[in-house]
Amino acid sequence: MNHSAERIANRAGVWGRLSLQTLASVGGFARVQWDELRHAAAVIGTVFWTGVRPRYWVRAVRTALARQVMSIGVEPLWFVGAVAIFVGISVVVQLTFWTGEAGQSQLLGPLLVAVVARELGPVLINLIVIVRSGSAMTTELGVLKINGEVCAQEAQGCDPFLHLAMPRVLGMAVSTFCLTIIFIFVAFASGFLFSSWTGKGSRDLFLFADAISSAVHPNDIFSILAKSIVPALFASASCCIGGLGVGKSDAEIPQATQRALTRSVAGLFVISAVVSLLTYL
């Protein structure tokens, strides 16, 4: 009996230590994520606080912003257009066909707005921007930090935040919103053209456009704005923090990039879920 009680006590002690270690790991992970969230919020707040002051918009900052918009919002237009066409052919045509088959054609507009404009468009575009531009942003800033160019800017009296972080954060937000609008229009247009060509939907363009426009409500506009801009702000801030937070080794850049992309994608889905709840409530 004594041996049995001793074994039970030992097992209880082992499980207790494992539970404490698990709780400590979860707590440490939550603390790190909370710190990253606070830092990203601080960066976003500083960007807006600084951006509304014209005296900070010197020529170098405006040039950097234009360069970021060109890189993030203009260069991937062909790829975004191709994705929008595939979404239009697959999703829009399917919704057009099945609402007609079910005799519920009046639901086509609300379904298209809810599925394509409010949900798919912002999420897909943010994913494209995060994967394509977020990784490049983190790597570029990490290389600048390791090469000492950030310290060189500080030595020359230039604020690295103005010249490096603010143009990237604002550039990604503006580009993501514009790409989302383009994606939505191309998806609707391609879906209408393909459904008309195959005979699965109406060939009246004005009827199709009226069905969509009449289904758009203020909460839909709020959802599109929030789901396209807020995740982009968070992702760009996280990538800037990750890139400028590397040390002196090149080996830290891939790790920083991976962490930044993971936080950005997780933030995208969390923000989208919260906005959806606020929209439907």
Low-confidence stretches: none
Distance between the termini: 60 Å
Average pLDDT number: 83
C-alpha-based Rg, rounded? 24 Å
Helix content: over 70%
Helix tally equals 9
- Shape, per Cα inertia axes: elongated
Order of helices and strands: HHHHHHHHH
How many domains make up the 3D coordinates? 1
Query: Main sheet?
Result: none
Assign the structural class, choosing from mainly alpha, mainly beta, alpha/beta, alpha+beta, or little secondary structure: mainly alpha
Instruction: Count the E strands.
Output: 0
Strand content: under 5%
Would you kindly provide a written description of the structure presented here, covering whatever features stand out?
This protein is mainly alpha-helical and 281 residues long. The chain has one domain (39-280). It is 86% helix and 0% strand. α4 packs antiparallel against α6 (160-198), α4 (108-146) packs across α7 and α8 runs antiparallel to α9. The longest helix has 50 residues, at 2-51. The termini are far apart.
